[in-house]
Automatic annotation (TrEMBL), chain A:
Record-stated family: Belongs to the AccD/PCCB family.
Main EC class the enzyme belongs to: transferase
Species of origin: Cytobacillus purgationiresistens
EC number: 2.1.3.15
First-listed, main subcellular location of the protein, grouped into a coarse class: cytoplasm
Protein name: Acetyl-coenzyme A carboxylase carboxyl transferase subunit beta
Pathway: Lipid metabolism; malonyl-CoA biosynthesis; malonyl-CoA from acetyl-CoA: step 1/1
Assembly information from the UniProt record: Acetyl-CoA carboxylase is a heterohexamer composed of biotin carboxyl carrier protein (AccB), biotin carboxylase (AccC) and two subunits each of ACCase subunit alpha (AccA) and ACCase subunit beta (AccD).
Automatic annotation (TrEMBL), chain B:
Source organism of the structure: Cytobacillus purgationiresistens
Domain (CoA carboxyltransferase C-terminal) ranges: 35-292
Self-association state and partner proteins as the record states: Acetyl-CoA carboxylase is a heterohexamer composed of biotin carboxyl carrier protein (AccB), biotin carboxylase (AccC) and two subunits each of ACCase subunit alpha (AccA) and ACCase subunit beta (AccD).
Record-given protein name: Acetyl-coenzyme A carboxylase carboxyl transferase subunit alpha
Pfam families per the UniProt record, alphabetical: ACCA
InterPro entries: Acetyl_CoA_COase_a_su (IPR001095), ClpP/crotonase-like_dom_sf (IPR029045), COA_CT_C (IPR011763)
Catalytic activity: N(6)-carboxybiotinyl-L-lysyl-[protein] + acetyl-CoA = N(6)-biotinyl-L-lysyl-[protein] + malonyl-CoA
EC identifiers of the protein: 2.1.3.15
HAMAP family given in the database record: AcetylCoA_CT_alpha
Pathway(s) annotated for this protein in UniProt: Lipid metabolism; malonyl-CoA biosynthesis; malonyl-CoA from acetyl-CoA: step 1/1
Amino acid sequence: MLKIFTKSKKKKYATIPSETAKQDVPEGIMTKCPDCKKIMYTKELMKNTKICINCGYHHPMNAKERFNSFLDQGSVEELNADMVSENPLQFPGYLEKVEKDRKKTNINEAVVTGVGLVGGFKVVTAVMDSTFRMGSMGSVVGEKITRAIEMADELKVPFIIFTASGGARMQEGVLSLMQMAKTSVALKRFSDHGGLIISIMTHPTTGGVSASFASLGDYNFAEPGALIGFAGRRIIEQTIREELPEDFQTSEFLLKHGQLDAVINRSDLKEQITNILSIHQPGGDLEW
Amino acid sequence: MVGELEFERPIIELRSKISELRDFTKTADVDLSSEIEKLEARLEKLEKDIYENIQPWDRVQIARHPSRPTTLDYIGKLFDGFFECHGDRTFADDEAIVGGIAKFKGLPVTVIGHQRGKDTKENIRRNFGMPHPEGYRKALRLMKQAEKFRRPIICFIDTKGAYPGKAAEERGQSEAIAKNLFEMASLKVPVVCVVIGEGGSGGALALGIGNHIHMLENSTYSVISPEGAASILWKDAGQAKKAAESMKITAPDLKELGIIEEIISEIKGGAHKDIDKQATEIEAVLHESLKELLRLSEEQLVNHRYDKYKAIGQYSFLREFIGVK
């Protein structure tokens, strides 16, 4: 009993770091995993391709990070980097929002496309970025992806797309909807020419994006734990008045329901894709 | 010994007697080497007698042996860089069928096969290798993909049959099988099928419309299981042995009926005694098959398959008996 009193006497003050001390620890040096709540060095997390060191949670990657981790170093040549959105419906405040995200993310739209090498194999890659307007698809996203597909067709190389999107961009109305058609039409022509399409769905892939190019790969993959689906959970629950299972619309749920070829861990992704690309190289050994 | 088969028992008994004697000579002062030699000669003769006169029912037992190598066992030995693809993109991923892409001696191929489990747990997951419609739809999806990328297709057949269940019927088991037969007919790439265990009826045939069909020596291929046939014909599943003999379900029978191309010989006592060696036998036959088929054009391949199936069946005309033309 006495001991407790003496102990509590000692702790008279709470330590509050001074303003200068606070600034000594720059923001972002530590990252908390939203899944297991463990706090770790951001540097270490980045080194581990943004996979939680403790629980394996895949932190979302932005487009630049994805390009750097997936394509062979220094092989990337970006396409149409300077394409920017218009405001076709004169939607109030739309361009300001886009402008804000351009400043925040340092990219001009929600998808980055480029030509590069994966394990030495030439590919055209499109990477969607969920930090830009939630990766939503408007005219620019649709056009950039379509141009990337056409480039793959022209170069006769595989097309690989990383999807991350909330769906169609509301501010461009029906023009956004039509981007689903535009990209799909382009993919069909590419496919009929024998082109290889690989889709890798990352968190989140929903709405118009999941209902177009994301699902049209010769191989459809997903990263573990990603949310993938057409309609949102809340909308479905309100419509059918039923509670949905915990794992509803996760990668693993989709795999079980026949929608995915495989769920691939980010750390194995490059190796697995390189293997698939090598199997798709024209011409076998001389023996044949 | 686990998994010993009825007809092998004399061999196993003799073998254990010999090793007993060997152990005995090690500890005792008696020289029994001449006796051992004699017994070994007898064993050799016995093995020859039994394995060369292997009966249809014995083959059924070997084909069903719990440790008989499965599709994935052979895939691991025969192919490089196998990447398994899941799902029919519609309803589910049926683990009773596995499929994916790989390289066979450097040649890109698509491999598909029925997959049994090795233990009870895996068997439940894989439904004892008996597919649902989604399994066949996955197989067809992968075949179409192979066609797009001009990859030959290799199918391993090993199933008791398509799963007879409520859900399977609801989702169109018949349609799924029929569609595979229909679509496989027109595939513009070589298709080689290998029966590695049991070829059970329509469930087996749905992966079986190939330019070449090969069978392991102790595999079976039949319209129905011997038990099923016996209960239909004689209302007694206990007469399965008799049914196995009369139904012509073994590899030599099918060869004689002109259905299969090659019998792939097995090691004495069955493929499970040495998977590595068995894989090299299969590899050689596959290699020859593919080399031959790769010389054919797309049109020739489709016609080749047409002609193969057109030629199967036996019939005559009444007019041949009464002599009119």
